[in-house]
Amino acid sequence: MSQERTGEIILKIAAKAIDGSLELAACFVDQKGLRKGDYLNGLSDKVSKNAALKAAKRLQEKGCLEKVEKNGITYYKITEFGRNSVEKFLFDRKTWDHKWRVVVFGIPEERKNLRERLRRTLKNSGFKQLQRSVWVSPFNVLDRVEKLVDYHDLHECMWYFLSDSIKNDEIIIERFLEKTI
Fold it and tell me: Looking at the domain 3-87, which fold is it?
């Protein structure tokens, strides 16, 4: 599992915790195969404790987590900055503005590397792929897309817009609910 993915999971777990903190040890499966905590979709048993601690340290250095000692136990508490960083990946129908951000592109084969970079950026920004060059998101993240379009001068081969509705959007909504923990 990548460092980014491990860090993302840690932030999501902390964001979902009632008090915004987590004990990393509670996310790991012990020798008997029992999870020590009740963190839904917590860290995979494929992630070593060392990797998770490194990810938590990186998130602490970035200002996303704060290390807290309590009764001899180390906890990591999510900061406001960390909550804002992960918020866009925690889809909530109640707070959703019911608008879809849609990106459509047709980047020529000569710029294949850029096309692949764009797909990674869209995925990391909370978009889901509907078709090879059609991506959609309920999150207000079009500013990232605008910067990418401007920086790489993609105005002639990429379009993005805000939509109030997409027919049969329940199927799409389910795809976003799968991502949340």
Answer: Arc Repressor Mutant, subunit A (1.10.10)
